[in-house]
Amino acid sequence: MRSLTFLFNALCVLSLVVTARSQSWTSQGCFNDSATNHALTTSSLLNQPHFSLDQCIAFCGSHLYSGIENGKDCYCGDTIQGGSVRISDGACNVICTGVSDVYCGGLNAIQIFLQNFPPPVVWTSIGCYTDSTSSRTIRTASYTSVNNMTVASCQSYCATGGYLYAGVEYARECYCDNTIHSPGVPASPSGCNMPCTGDPSITCGGSDRIQIFQRS
Ligand SMILES: *[C@@H]1O[C@H](CO)[C@@H](O)[C@H](O)[C@H]1NC(C)=O
Ligand SMILES: *[C@@H]1O[C@H](CO)[C@@H](O)[C@H](O)[C@H]1NC(C)=O
């Protein structure tokens, strides 16, 4: 009977981890907590009658950590405080008030989840390339003829589309692609000499010259 209970506990902890992973949060395990000295202190949502992990991670939003406790309490923070340390998973053994077969921490025991933030997008200049209106060097997505073009807004547009390359041209044009198409080839940097319409302190390519950035 005892080993069956243990198996049940193990399965519940496992399912909690899987649920969390699909939300981009990973369980760090069960930690000790106390009412006078909390592990996660930035904000809390307590005594929820229909509590679940999903409710807590939605509440904790952009914080690094979320923690569920005593079946019905949620805590958020960006550091684990109060000398809280990992303890046996068996201490996180109180069923969530909102999910009948899953544990939401325990009494003075908080199950802590870490949010997996995607790595920041970094763009590196790969130089000034030749381009022509009849055969665009990068071409899959674009927006052109705008009076507020900047390198950053072009990169952000291309990042949203999931593209590897972003290129600015003729002061006011932005192109995105996953391939650099021939006959486009590297050219002298001096051809990429037109101030961006949205920020004259930087250049946005030139006439038949596209300044290309590659995403890491
Ligand atoms: C956790 O337990 C340690 C001792 O193992 C104690 O020093 C610490 O204060 C406890 N922290 C919390 C938040 O309960
Ligand atoms: C640039 O201007 C257009 C409309 O003229 C606007 O829709 C867009 O949000 C602006 N972009 C930036 C980055 O300000």
Report on the architecture of this protein.
- With 216 residues, this protein is α+β, with helices and mostly antiparallel strands.
- It contains three helices and 13 strands.
- The longest helix has 21 residues, at 2-22.
- The chain starts with a helix and ends with a strand.
- The model is unreliable at 1-23 (pLDDT under 50).
- The chain binds 2-acetamido-2-deoxy-beta-D-glucopyranose (2 copies).
- One 2-acetamido-2-deoxy-beta-D-glucopyranose is lined by residues 146, 148, 153.
Tag the structure with descriptive keywords.
WSC-domain-containing protein; WSC_carb-bd; 216 residues; binds 2-acetamido-2-deoxy-beta-D-glucopyranose; repeat; five-stranded antiparallel sheet; alpha+beta
Strand and helix map with partners:
Blueprint: H1 2-22, E1 25-32, E2 43-45, H2 53-60, E3 65-69, E4 73-77, E5 86-87, E6 109-115, E7 123-130, E8 141-143, H3 151-160, E9 165-169, E10 173-177, E11 195-196, E12 199-203, E13 209-215
Antiparallel strand pairs: 1-5, 1-6, 2-4, 3-4, 3-6, 7-13, 8-10, 9-10, 9-13, 11-12
Secondary structural class: alpha+beta
> Level of helix content?
10-25%
Strand content: 25-35%
What is Rg? Answer: 26 Å
In this entry the ligands are: 2-acetamido-2-deoxy-beta-D-glucopyranose
Q: Main sheet, how many strands, which sense, barrel?
A: 6 strands, antiparallel
What is the distance, rounded to the nearest whole angstrom, between the alpha carbons of the first and last residues?
Answer: 54 Å
Q: Could you say which overall geometry the principal axes of the C-alpha atoms support?
A: rod-shaped
By DSSP, the count of extended strands is: 13
In terms of per-residue confidence, which ranges show pLDDT below 50 for 5 or more consecutive residues? 1-23
One letter per element, helices H and strands E, the order comes to HEEHEEEEEEHEEEEE
Average pLDDT, rounded to a whole number, is: 91
Number of helices: 3
Order the strands across the largest sheet as they lie in space: 2-4-3-6-1-5
